[in-house]
Write a structure and sequence with these properties.
The protein is built from ten helices and eleven strands. By secondary structure, the protein is an alpha/beta fold. Helix 4 links the parallel strand 2 and strand 3. The longest helix has 34 residues. It starts with a helix and ends with a helix.
Amino acid sequence: MRLLYTWRRLIMITLNWPRVLKLFFLLSLLLCYNEFLVYYFVLIQCSWPSINMEHLDADVSQGSGKPLKALFMADTHLLGPQGHWFDKLRREWQMTRAFQTAMTIHSPEAVFVLGDLFDDGQWSSDEEFKRYINRFYSMFHHSSTTALHAVIGNHDVGFHYMITQHKLDRFQKAFQSPLVKMLRIRDNIFVMINSMAFEGDRCIMCDTAKRDLEKISISLQCAQEYTSDLKDMQNKKCSAKEYFKYTKPILLQHFPMFRQSDENCSGPDSAPPEEKLKSFRPKLDALSKEASDMLLQELHPRLVISAHTHNFCYRTLQDGTPEWTVPSFSWRNNIKPSFLLVTITNNNYAVSKCYMPREWTVIWTYILGVVCILIWLVLPYRRVWTSYTRKQH
């Protein structure tokens, strides 16, 4: 009889509605923290960097406009139809929450996605590609005060040997991203390139990209002469050009500039030690030396921002130009995903790296939270059972 009484008490504890509501509240709180609040707690710790004298270009007079606040991210790799449903659900939710939280906290005026928006873009049919685009804009929707610009990556249209005009056209139609593009925002100039179009094999795409690059180079030279107030224009090609205020451009691309490996890269989200010594393949893992030299000679950029490796890297190129390689935005490709917040004026800039919550931190928070809830659930049962065993003795 006493055992029956004990079991009745245990059942009453289990069916205690206030206790059930508390359990539901605790589980909801754990879910809300891991899927929403943790992104605010982590991302609020980073902020827009302040302009200082470190990257000042003394040859360019300071403009009158306010600094541009730009966010740089890369390698979102949205999975295609063959991707596992849970992998797709988990990682895309992470990217959505991280992006939307960043929009709420930091409110960038421009967002640049540096290629590989999709994981299977090069294999997708037109119908699948349309669904890709809709998912991308659904996940990374933003206010009308923020402009989003995308660079083409190899997973979006394929490596050089896989690219067709049709694949280029449909990506360009969706994101207004041609082979080479000059973008002017306030007093700042950005040049966005298709890395796969700089193979250097004289294909139609490569020749077109080279001609477009040369046109932009001439426009920059004309703007420099115009800004310098030279009455006697030495470049005759400038006569029919639109003149604008010159500043050294920021070069945006998917492939990093030529380098042999990630050996000289540092940072907690740089490549693991065993990967840093792995040799890069020119035209696949990075631009060729010829393409890199040509871009530096034609554009004379003040800053290069690239992606593709999924790992962070900061280094200085042979001419002194700094290059920042942005790691993947997705947990699927990097256990420590991050993005860049960059404050930019026409003659200066400052960079801040913003880390996102780590996947294993979220997993361990779930584990510890569930363990604590189970302990809370078991304690009343333990008291009842202890009371029963004492009376038995």
